[in-house]
Amino acid sequence: MTLIDSHCHIDGEAFDEDRDEVVQRARDAGVEIMLNIGTGDPHTDDFRRAVAVAERYDNVYASVGVHPHDAKLYDDKAEKHLMELAANPKVIAWGEIGLDYYYDHSPREVQVDVFRRQIRTARELDLPITIHSRDADDETVEILTEECSYEGFPGIMHCFGGTAAMAEALMPLGFLISFAGNVTFKKAENLRDAARVVPLDRLLIETDCPFLTPVPHRGKRNEPGFVAHTAQFLADFYGVSFETLAEHTTRNFLDLFKISLSPKMDTDKHG
Question: Whole-model pTM above 0.85?
Answer without folding.
Answer: yes
